[in-house]
Amino acid sequence: MTDLTQIDLDRLSRHLADAGEPVSGPLRASVLVGGRSNLTYRLEDDQSAWAMRRPPRSGVIESAHDVIREYRIVEALQGLEVPVARTVACDPEGVVLGAPCAVVAFVPGFTARGQDDIADWDDASFDACADALVAALAALHAVDPDAVGLGDFGRPNGYASRQLRRWSGQWDAMGAQDERADQLRTWLAGRVPEQARSTLVHGDYRVDNVLLDPHDPGRVLAVVDWELSTRGDPVADVATMCAYRHPALDLVLGIEAAWTSPRWPSPESLADRYARHAGTDLPAFGFYLALAFYKLAVIAQGIVFRHGLGVTVGEGYEGVGASVPVLLEAGLAAAAAHD
Predict the structure, then answer these.
(1) Please, what is the Cα angle at 39 between 36 and 40, to 5 degrees?
(2) Statement: residue 309 has pLDDT above 60
(3) Which pTM does this prediction carry?
């Protein structure tokens, strides 16, 4: 069961047909597992399947749920070395469902979301998957935004300042209060680095935001969840990937997350692996690691905020609030280690 009515499904069917996508019979919908911000649905008829993304009906903070933005970057990456789903149709004005939505072809991949999903992996599988994740991220950072029509996809410079301003604004908009957040924000504001490079960045990169080949963990079929993507400093993407290895992610997701398993390479090893693969160093990595923990704390607080409004879908929200102070402490620890 979903919150989509038969009228919604009929409208979606016409929307797909208008976009040139064949639809065979009535559409059916189910909510896919995962996703604490945008909602993700599987749509299917008797022959085909699609994935649809849309924001919650209410409780949206600023642009954190911009599904049209993520559709645009996935469309721009079609046919490149970055693995993405085939784009199908989008509705930026929300005519179909009363809120913006975007539809891509369903990728029959494997999502390593919980530790049960990777319980039978051997060491070689973890190593191969880590390499594939790093390779996909480096491939994204190698794309020339101007060459794929994304020259205006965010501003090329001042990324760190904008990120700090954005996440601080979202924290304040929710009325959240924590002395550690104030301390971390002050530390970050006083150490904003000069930006060495400007590339496309994913903004939310970790293993459960990719679809893997069910028979080969070392093959990424598609990178998903692009809602935080923009132009910015690629070091921030690497730092975010590493920050997500923290056990507090379990509380945010409401499960024992696959990405927090101790069998993966350490955060430091992942950063080194990326640097070797991309052939570059990681300037200001300590700053971006602290910023990543701050961002994740704000995201977790946002989940608590929307859950309090009663607009979340699914289960497992009980422990999310407890992750916020833990993540802020981790950010302060990263700051102290790199001060």
Answers:
(1) 115
(2) yes
(3) 0.90
* Residue 252, phi-psi category: left (phi > 0), alpha (psi -120 to 50), beta (remainder): alpha
pLDDT tens-digit series, residues 149-160 = 999 998 889 999
Residues 6 or more apart whose Cβ sits within 8 Å of residue 277: 131, 134, 135, 138
Look at residue 2 in the predicted model and tell me its pLDDT: 73
- Per-residue HEC secondary structure of the chain comes to CCCCCHHHHHHHHHHHHHCCCCCCCCCEEEECCCCCCCEEEEEECCCCEEEEEECCCCCCCCCCCCHHHHHHHHHHCCCCCCCCCCEEEEECCCCCCCCCEEEEECCCCECCCEHHHHCCCCHHHHHHHHHHHHHHHHHHHHCCCHHHCCCCCCCCCCHHHHHHHHHHHHHHHCCCCCHHHHHHHHHHHCCCCCCCCCEEECCCCCHHHEEEECCEEEEEEEECCCCCCEEECHHHHHHHHHHCCCCCHHHHHCCCEHHHCCCCCCHHHHHHHHHHHHCCCCCCHHHHHHHHHHHHHHHHHHHHHHHHHCCCCCCCCCCHHHHHHHHHHHHHHHHHHCC
Place of tokens 């056990």: 247
pLDDT in tens, 235-256: 999 999 999 999 999 999 889 9
CA atoms of 38 and 302, how far apart (whole Å)? 12
Mean per-residue pLDDT over the chain, rounded? 92
Cβ neighbours of residue 42 closer than 8 Å, sequence gap 6 or more: 29, 30, 31, 32, 49, 50, 51, 52, 106
Q: Please state, in angstroms and as integers, the Cα–Cα distance from residue 42 to each residue in 9, 107, 159, following that order.
A: 12, 10, 34
Token reading at 301:
């607080």
Residue 134: name the closest of 254, 25, 290, 275 by CA.
Answer: 275
What pLDDT is stored for residue 311 in this prediction? 63
The whole-angstrom separation of Cα 52 and Cα 98 is 14
Which domains does the chain possess? Answer: 6-105 (3.30.200.20)
